[in-house]
Structures are given as structure tokens and as C-alpha cells.
Amino acid sequence: MSLTFTIPKFFLFCLNFLLVIIGLALIAVGSWVTADDQGFIDTIQLFSSYNSIELQLYQGTSLLRYFSYAVIIMGGLLVVIAFVGCWGVVIENRGLLIAFTALMIVLVLLEGGAAGAMGGTQSLWKQDYEKSMTVRFESNYRGTFGAFSISEFEDYSLKMDKLMIELECCGLSGYQDFSNTRSRWYLEGRKYSDGTSGDAIKIPPACCKYTSKDFLRSADYGKFQDNIKDKDCVKTTSESNMNVGCLTAVNNKIQQRALPFISIPIVIFLLQIATIGLSIFLICRIKKWDNELYY
């Protein structure tokens, strides 16, 4: 057996084995997100600190749920097809390699079609998840700092306040989110530690600018007033980020750090193309040997 067959065979097996591992990892990640998306987000934040705080905005959304389903399906198909490729290489079976090549080409076409469909309908699904985020924000956010004691802080409100302070934004669309008379913040959260309440409170303290954000990272929330630039910010909206919506801030941050997210599917795509090329080469070599044996 020549090196021109052995070396491509070795590389094809290794690439397929790698794709099996990647497929299993995709299934695991997709299942984790489906079962406990908050736990998944918290784990990412644990290892990346506040660099991934924007992920909190997607917790519980249909976008994250559909993403997890797509990842599970892709991972499952990748495992099955790559396993067929591994087995075909090991036993040097031309029929299995042909089946593997055909299936991998179909998978690549499906992935390309799915990416194209997502890009073509971006405005629709973006509008859908932004609407669901807004409804959730209006229904659940009531504020934390200055309005309630630390023992009364609710998890969702605290996470949103951290998000607003870290990304220097205010509400999802801007300060107008807090003028909605039906929102929970408008009904329950318009109060401040100095005794001011009601219409005198324009925005929550999370919309204000801070000299330091270390109190967030150390979870020393009682010191927020020591770091706020303007003590009257909630009443005057001076020294605030009132005109910057968190949806815009999150989108800008994701675009700035999009390379790692884009590179992963590109690498998988290139691995798939490489396996298709190697498989076609081996199919032709095996066919040539079969013809030589026959004649």
C-alpha cells in the first residue's frame, strides 16, 4: 500500500474522528442550554468575568432556545456522518466512503442554506427576540440600588442593573422604557434611598454614570452611592447614559467581538470540505485498484 493512499487515509480518519468529538460537544452544549440556559450563561461568565455579561439579555429568549435546537441537530448529524466516514476509512470500503461523501455534501449544503436563510430573515427574528426581551423587561424589572435593601434584590433586576452599569446603557431602548406606566419599575421601583419617590424619580441608578465599577465585581452593592458621579442623577438625569439603549450597546459589543463566534463554524465548515476532498481521492484510488484487480 503506497504512501499516497496511507497518508490521506490517516488524515481522513483523524479529521472524521475530530468531527465526531466536535459533534458530541455540540450536542452537549445544545442540551445544556435547552435544560438550563441560565446555568450555561453563568458558567461562561464565571470563566470570562464581566466580558460576557451581555449574554444575560438572551436568557430565556426564543432565540437562545432555537439556537440550542439547531446546535443539537447539527451535532447529531455530524456525529453520525463522521462515524460513517471513520468506519469506511478503517475497512477501506468504497461504498461507505461514497455514502459518507454524499451525506457530508448534503450536510454542508444544509448548513449553507440555513446560514443564508438566517441572514435573509435577520430583520424578522431580530424583531421577534427584541420584542420578547422588552416584554420580559417591562414585566420583571423593578430596580435594586437605592430603591430596595440588598436582601430584597431580585435576581433578574440585579442582573439587568449590572448590565446597564457595565455597558453604560439605560433600559433596552433608552430612558423612555422607564416612562411606560404599565412597567413594573414605574409601578414599584420609582423610589430612592433619600426618601424621594414617584414622578420625581426619572430613571433608576443603574442608568447613571459611575466613577468606578469595582463595587459590582466585589458584590459590595451598598457602596454604589460612593461611586455614582451625580447623587441627583435619578432625579435630574444629568451624568447618565439615558440615551443609550442596552440592545444597541449589546449589539455593538457583539460586533466588536464577533471573530471567535464566526471562526468556529468556519473551521467546522473547512474541516467538512477537507474530509469531502480526501474521501473523493480515496474513492478514486480504491476504484483504480479494483479495476486493476478485475483486469
Describe this structure in words.
The structure is a single chain. The chain is mainly alpha-helical and 295 residues long. It folds into two domains: 3-120 and 258-294; 127-249, no CATH class. It is 68% helix and 0% strand. It has twelve helices and no strands. It has helices at residues 3-35, 37-48, 62-91, 94-120, 122-140, 155-167, 184-189, 214-217, 224-227, 233-236, 246-256, 258-294. Helix 1 (3-35) crosses helix 2 (37-48), helix 1 (3-35) runs antiparallel to helix 3 and helix 3 packs antiparallel against helix 4 (94-120). The protein is elongated, with a radius of gyration of 27 Å. The two termini are 19 Å apart.
Q: Could you give a quick summary of the protein structure above?
A:
With 295 residues, this protein is mainly alpha-helical. It is 68% helix and 0% strand.
β-strand amount: under 5%
Percent of residues in helices = 55-70%
Largest sheet: number of strands, sense, barrel closure: none
The whole-number mean of residue pLDDT values reads 87
What structural category characterises the helix and strand content? Answer: mainly alpha
Features:
single chain; 2 domains; mainly alpha; 68% helix
Topology:
Layout: H1 3-35, H2 37-48, H3 62-91, H4 94-120, H5 122-140, H6 155-167, H7 184-189, H8 214-217, H9 224-227, H10 233-236, H11 246-256, H12 258-294
Helix pairs in contact: 1-2, 1-3, 1-12, 3-4, 4-12
